């Protein structure tokens, strides 16, 4: 029995959440769902975009499924990531059939450091000349994310980890990142995992020209943010991309897309990003067999191309596609 915090949020967040829970209901696993409020509607109702009860609910769950918030997204999701110290952001770049993926053989995991680097609120300020931001790299946080990437590789039959940085220019901060990369790499050498590294600018090109160079990419916060959006572009759009935010005690799984006010309420949102986020949750919970089952069901529905939503060229509703995936389990 797993206790899952379910936070659908706003707009299509609610619609794709219903679709994902429907698929999970088709599995032979006992989930206890506890629903929490967050987002713009919640702000209107309760005066808070992320009420303390919701934060507590997520904290005390085995895992959280999160849909999307609207304008209050930063106050909800960024606050959740920070309060729960969700240090690892995992963004798979994987191509599926029947989508607008630019290549049909992409399977890369981007492991992004989620707590420091260029994105620390309070480390940006105006000066007499303009403005300044401090980029913070600590040994503790970088070693933690690098080790996470190697463990991910080891547990998922990957044979290579690539560190991405700009150590030729940022000799101290990225220099330290690179040094730690190869220190940790020593421990995994005998476990069949090779290590290499590229500069961030070259990597942006290689992802397009030689994407088979990569299996697992580990990088700092800003580079990871940019590379993962490039990855989203490579595999054909927001309706397809899941993500995981993982900490020592908590984990939250969410689609990369937002609340999509332009299509909300019509029941036409593509539920795959949310269902694949639930699949990542199953992996995290150690339910690999169920995770594979869900992914194969998605593959089957995409290959058939019949019960798919408008963005994939079909005319199924969100729940019709969810039902087809559930039936294919
Ligand atoms: P968005 O991801 O909501 O939508 C961008 C475009 O992609 C829209 O045309 C939308 O219809 C389409 N789209 C997104 N998901 C789709 C799906 N599952 N199926 C079919 N089409 C899909 O991003 P946008 O428009 O920049 O932001 C809308 C709102 O969402 C804003 O208020 C923003 O703050 C919030 N947002 C929240 C996020 C979160 O909660 N994690 C992340 C990104 C945005
Ligand atoms: Mg981003």
Features:
alpha/beta, Isopropylmalate Dehydrogenase, binds 1,4-dihydronicotinamide adenine dinucleotide, 329 residues, 11 helices, 12 strands, binds magnesium ion
Number of helices: 11
Structural class: alpha/beta
For the report, how would you describe the main beta sheet?
A: 10 strands, mixed
Question: How are the strands of the biggest sheet laid out side by side?
Answer: 2-1-3-12-11-4-5-10-8-9
Reading the helices and strands in chain order gives EHEHHEHEEEEHEHEHEHEEHHH
Query: How many strands?
Result: 12
CATH class categorisation of the largest domain: Alpha Beta
Mean pLDDT, as a whole number?
95
CATH topology of the largest domain: Isopropylmalate Dehydrogenase
The CATH superfamily of the largest domain appears as: Isopropylmalate Dehydrogenase
What does this structure look like?
With 329 residues, this protein is α/β, with parallel strands linked by helices. The chain folds into two domains: 1-87 and 248-329, Isopropylmalate Dehydrogenase (3-Layer(aba) Sandwich), CATH 3.40.718; 107-234, 3-Layer(aba) Sandwich (Isopropylmalate Dehydrogenase). Helices cover 42% and strands 20% of the residues. It has helices at residues 12-25, 40-46, 52-59, 73-83, 139-155, 173-188, 200-209, 221-234, 272-284, 288-304, 318-327, and strands at 2-9, 31-35, 63-68, 88-94, 107-113, 124-126, 131-133, 160-165, 194-199, 216-219, 242-246, 251-255. The chain has a ten-stranded mixed beta sheet with strand order 2-1-3-12-11-4-5-10-8-9, sandwiched between helices. Strands 6-7 form a two-stranded antiparallel sheet. A hairpin with a 4-residue loop joins β11 and β12 (251-255). Bound molecules: 1,4-dihydronicotinamide adenine dinucleotide and magnesium ion. 1,4-dihydronicotinamide adenine dinucleotide binds at residues 12, 16, 68-71, 73, 77, 238-239, 254, 257-263, 269-270, 273, 311. Magnesium ion (MG) binds at residues 225, 229.
